[in-house]
């Protein structure tokens, strides 16, 4: 087992031990002073967690000279806006873990008439606290293969939760839900996902996929522009969007990030609107929403 694989496992084990100590303090009456039975062990565990977290970040950080950007097709078509882009800062999401050093988030931004409000609901301070996913234009849009590839992971059994784009919902996400997901593991952070092996040690990650929408499974060969599934709102998200990144291995727990550039688009900066080409659009439209199946869920 490599260090890059063992460190995340040690982190989760530390969380479990800490929770066990906290529960034990309330449900048992162990002999001896509290500092010896609870405080001291908890302090040791917290110190180990801090050390493990440092090792996790260091293991996921780029080593040596950065790889040149890998050029691939855009994973979507139409008009979108970039958020948390590596064009502005690296690591783009404030961390190297899960291979997301050069990750990008994108949200659909359809054209609207002059003077008309955006089709994408804005962030609210208080109300509405949450919104249903169909209020966001990204939800249900097709995800396309960025290159000829082999599917190495495909999972779409997690639910699409309601939006978290209000102050109360965002606080809940950051203080409670996000931490719980991190403890459980990468698969709960990225939600439903598909990972493609592009060859030459490069893997593409599509995160937060819509439940029940995947049209591929592990082992399938796909062609560039082929419909893989749909944008959803599963995992650690505030609203329906696509989180995309390249990495150097198939396991987000142990992979390092790889720079990318989208053919015909480049790497859009944070807040920059862009229009992806029409490659794969006819296939996506022809497939039809009804062919996704009745098992697709709408939160």
From TrEMBL:
<dbReference type="InterPro" id="IPR050570">
    <property type="entry name" value="Cell_wall_metabolism_enzyme"/>
</dbReference>
<keyword id="KW-0472">Membrane</keyword>
<dbReference type="InterPro" id="IPR011055">
    <property type="entry name" value="Dup_hybrid_motif"/>
</dbReference>
<keyword id="KW-1133">Transmembrane helix</keyword>
<protein>
    <submittedName>
        <fullName>M23 family metallopeptidase</fullName>
    </submittedName>
</protein>
<feature type="compositionally biased region" description="Low complexity">
    <location>
        <begin position="276"/>
        <end position="291"/>
    </location>
</feature>
<keyword id="KW-0812">Transmembrane</keyword>
<dbReference type="InterPro" id="IPR016047">
    <property type="entry name" value="M23ase_b-sheet_dom"/>
</dbReference>
<dbReference type="Pfam" id="PF01551">
    <property type="entry name" value="Peptidase_M23"/>
</dbReference>
<feature type="region of interest" description="Disordered">
    <location>
        <begin position="276"/>
        <end position="299"/>
    </location>
</feature>
<feature type="transmembrane region" description="Helical">
    <location>
        <begin position="39"/>
        <end position="57"/>
    </location>
</feature>
<feature type="domain" description="M23ase beta-sheet core">
    <location>
        <begin position="177"/>
        <end position="248"/>
    </location>
</feature>
């Amino acid at each position: 087992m490599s260090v890059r694989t063992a460190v995340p496992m040690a982190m989760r084990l530390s969380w479990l031990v800490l929770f066990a100590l906290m529960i034990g303090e309330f449900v048992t009456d162990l002999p001896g002073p509290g500092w010896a039975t609870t405080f001291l062990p908890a302090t040791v565990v917290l110190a180990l967690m801090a050390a493990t977290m440092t090792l996790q970040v260091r293991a996921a950080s780029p080593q040596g000279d950065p790889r040149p950007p890998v050029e691939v097709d855009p994973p979507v078509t139409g008009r979108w806006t970039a958020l948390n882009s590596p064009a502005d800062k690296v690591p783009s999401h404030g961390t190297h873990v899960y291979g997301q050093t050069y990750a990008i988030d994108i949200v659909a931004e359809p054209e609207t008439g002059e003077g008309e409000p955006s089709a994408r609901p804005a962030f609210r301070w208080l109300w509405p606290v949450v919104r249903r996913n169909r209020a966001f234009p990204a939800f249900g849009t097709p995800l396309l293969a960025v290159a000829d590839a082999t599917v190495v992971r495909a999972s779409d059994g997690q639910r699409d939760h309601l939006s978290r784009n209000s102050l109360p919902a965002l606080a809940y996400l950051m203080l409670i839900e996000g931490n719980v997901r991190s403890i459980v593991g990468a698969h709960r952070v990225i939600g439903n996902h598909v990972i493609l092996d592009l060859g030459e040690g490069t893997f593409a990650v599509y995160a937060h996929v819509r439940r029940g929408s995947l049209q591929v499974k592990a082992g399938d060969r796909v062609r560039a522009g082929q419909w893989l599934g749909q944008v959803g709102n599963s995992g650690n998200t505030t609203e329906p969007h696509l989180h995309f990144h390249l990495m150097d291995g198939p396991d987000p727990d142990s992979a390092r990030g790889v720079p990318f550039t989208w053919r015909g688009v480049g790497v859009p900066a944070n807040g920059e609107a862009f229009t992806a080409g029409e490659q794969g659009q006819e296939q996506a439209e022809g497939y039809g929403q009804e062919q996704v199946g009745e098992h697709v869920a709408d939160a």
